[in-house]
């Protein structure tokens, strides 16, 4: 049995043990748990449309925090970007979307959503804005109404470049397999 210690003599380790004991006895509701400790929401596979991969992402991101990058077209100052994205955030707030906004550059902002299931609806709103150059969501770049024609073409070709690069990686891997020490000895 441990000796009874005066509370004034407790050090950090004693306080940590006391906190652990309190938490063990504490019943925490599921909604109060941090997001990474909550069980994932069940996915209703009957709502998934196999022709639309976005429908799968919508269901898997439902109830999770998600961030999207938004680029403002033209060459705005940071203050202009702040004003424009503030108008967008206000419009989304009026449509009952919980969105937080963070300016990360002179023409870029991050929109953080508490519920990622609404991300594609918000993306559709943003790309229809006059000053929106593009929206990046889950690694996919969607050109906006304010994007220049050259940017729209460039954004569409990005996935093709990635495919070409993967094919090049496969070739380099096959070359690496052929460059074994035994093969070099045979050549000598």
TL;DR?
Keywords: Chaperone, Endoplasmic reticulum, Signal, Wnt signaling pathway. This protein is α+β, with helices and mostly antiparallel strands and 188 residues long.
Radius of gyration: 26 Å
Give the number of helices.
6
How would you sum up the major sheet?
Answer: 5 strands, antiparallel
Which CATH architecture of the domain at 52-148 would you pick?
2-Layer Sandwich
CATH superfamily of the domain at 52-148: ACT domain
Global outline: elongated
What value does the average pLDDT take? 76
H-E string: HHEHEEHEEHH
* Count of β-strands: 5
Cα-to-Cα separation, first versus last residue = 75 Å
Q: Keywords, please?
A:
single chain; 188 residues; alpha+beta; Alpha-Beta Plaits; 5-stranded antiparallel sheet; 6 helices; 5 strands; elongated; wnt signaling pathway
Structure characterization notes:
- With 188 residues, the chain is an alpha+beta fold.
- The chain has a domain at 52-148: ACT domain (Alpha-Beta Plaits, 2-Layer Sandwich).
- The chain is 46% helix and 15% strand.
- The protein has 6 helices and 5 strands.
- The chain has helices at 12-25, 53-61, 78-94, 119-127, 149-178, 181-187, and strands at 66-72, 99-103, 108-113, 132-137, 140-143.
- It has a 5-stranded antiparallel sheet with strand order 2-3-1-4-5.
- A hairpin with a 4-residue loop joins strand 2 and strand 3.
- The longest helix is centred in the last third of the chain and has 30 residues, at 149-178.
- It is elongated and about 75 Å long.
- It starts with 11 loop residues before the first helix and ends with a helix.
- Mean pLDDT is 76; it is low at 157-166.
- Belongs to the MESD family.
- It holds the Pfam family Mesd.
- Residues 146-188 have a biased composition (Basic and acidic residues).
- InterPro entries: MESD.
- Residues 23-32 have a biased composition (Acidic residues).
């Amino acid at each position: 049995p441990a000796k009874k210690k005066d509370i004034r003599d407790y050090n950090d380790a004693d306080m940590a043990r006391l906190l652990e004991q309190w938490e063990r006895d504490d019943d925490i509701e599921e909604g109060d748990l941090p997001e990474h400790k909550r069980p994932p929401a069940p996915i209703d596979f009957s709502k998934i449309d196999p022709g639309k991969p976005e429908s799968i992402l919508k269901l898997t991101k439902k109830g999770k925090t998600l961030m999207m990058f938004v680029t403002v077209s033209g060459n705005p100052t940071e203050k202009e970007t702040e004003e424009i994205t503030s108008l967008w955030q206000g419009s989304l707030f009026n449509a009952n979307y919980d969105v937080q906004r963070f300016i990360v550059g002179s023409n870029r902002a991050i929109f953080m959503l508490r519920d990622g299931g609404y991300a594609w609806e918000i993306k559709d709103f943003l790309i229809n804005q006059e000053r929106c150059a593009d929206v990046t969501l889950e690694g996919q770049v969607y050109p906006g109404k304010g994007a220049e024609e050259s940017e729209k073409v460039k954004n569409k070709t990005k996935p093709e470049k990635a495919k070409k690069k993967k094919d090049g990686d496969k070739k380099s891997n096959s070359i690496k397999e052929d460059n074994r020490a035994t093969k070099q000895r045979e050549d000598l």
